[in-house]
Amino acid sequence: MAAINIPEFYRRLGDNQDAILDGLDSAHIDTLNRSLRKLERSVVSALQDAPVKGGVLWDTKWAIQFRKQLSEDFGKEYNPWAQKTVDGYNESAKGINSLFGKLNLDSDFTKVDKSVIKQLKQQYFHGFQDLGLKFVNEMADATYQSVLTGRKFEDLVVDLQQSINGVHIVTDESKDLVAFVDKYRDDPAKGEAVAEAIEKLHTQFAQDMVGQNLRRYSSQMVHDSLMQFNGTYTRHKAQEAGLDHYLYYGSLIKDSRSFCSNHVDKTYSTAEAEKIWSNQQWKGKSGTDPFIDRGGFNCRHHFIPVDPEHLAELEGGEVREEEEEPVSKPQARKIKYPSVDSVVAAGMADQRYPHKDGQHVLYADHKIQPKNLLGKVKLDKLEPHAREVVDKAIVDAQDAVVQMGGMPIRAVRAKNLAGRTAASMGEGILSVDSSVVNRYARPLKPEIKAKIQSSGKEFLFAHKRFGELETEINAAIEKGVTGKPLDRLRSKLEQMKRRRAVAKMDTQDLWSTGLNTTKWAADGDREDRAWIGAELFSQPDEQIRALVFHEMGHQLHDSYGGMSYQGLTLGSELVQKARKMDRTFSPTKYADVNEKEWFAENFTLYHMGRKDIVDKGIKKVFDNLTKGVAP
User: pTM above 0.90?
Assistant: First the structure.
């Protein structure tokens, strides 16, 4: 790595790239805003024909057909905008080709690679298309559910508008404020003014700012997709030209990440950059590919290929010879921790965790994992036998994680988590619910077994009856039933919904005292699968171990870059590999929730003697990691 006073030649190249990217970014956001306004108007126009009686949407057939209308509206307004946006990436490609021309390279390296550009554009278009489809489905489902529940039609309209644009436009008086928020919402210098505008919209005009909307996610994708295209195509052209060194370039602002501040205006070889991005952690990190992920979401920095000899010539210095690292064969990591305290001590010595002023810090500020826990073992709330089981489970599971290249945890605590969860992992901090684990470790009383069976039956009955009532309401609406008869059906539906929820909570609470067990095999009926891996073990001590191993599966996932940020799970080679796998085979029902739980459940069963039901693809990855082979 070399910090340099950037020669004017390379600074001009960087500034020119900045200008192209900023211009495209701004233009795409402007066209996005116009497209979403048109889309909102189209959706509202379609809702004018909705069959409404007594302020309520009543026709299920119309609600079902509305999905088709939404798809057409998105196909008319959103998808063409997305296609036009990715077509604009041609300008970025031209700028990159021009950059290589200015480096006085062979003309072959300055030609536009149409096939590569086409593939990249298709990839990013599909990303926008998938996002649009997600919102079509959510808006269509909300419309259908409003018929079943008798929700006020005017509330539905507001929700659909907010799903698209976030700030709901109601009166002409508020348009200036809305336009101001649209234009400056991502400008840190206008932060206070934007907040004041939103506050005025909330109070004076009674409008809402909702976070989960198409505008928000599309705006983020506009920037990140453009920068990822730029980074991928730059890397491709540099490889063609035989260049392996890059300048990390871009301006710094008040809110720039400390990671970017530390690395901007420095040159790296590809190997150096990949090592830094893989091993360092920082707030907002989105992955480990330096050319695609850069500083993280919304990062405005990028890489410029440099010729070290040319750079040294301009600087009047000598070319630095890169030290080659010795090549060694993969070796299995053999670690055996004597105690939980030694595990946490190892975690606090691990330099892969984020640091500030020589001290461990969290990836992000939050209340779930307080920073004052770092370096501590607080398991005194566990009863003696429970503590013994948890201690051994942590040591064994941590051995497995470290053997696979993961990081040791840096804190553990037992606390009454008020039923929110039996255990959690994040920031290298393991938390277990003391009330749950203590009850696990006690012999299961016959009356508890009976209650588990009873609450389970109650849940199944309520769930079945809820579905029957949905069918009855649909049939009644189709027959034109209105007024009190329909209201009574809807009231029963709400009662059954609550009854089902209570039974589920009771079952989960009893789950804390002991689990129903199953001997499900890979060739068995999917509906007979266990809910979680712990149900595959009959002894309470084994169930506690399964609980700990599941959380340690999350630790391994996090160690390889699987931290979650703004609802998106991104990460390194291992995480991406798990994410792209065909997860149609899941060993438990809980593994169906998302790729993180799928990963953790497979990790648990892999290490607890049930490899027979572990997904074959991830099993091969785990086998290689255990041998010291990179994913």
Answer: no
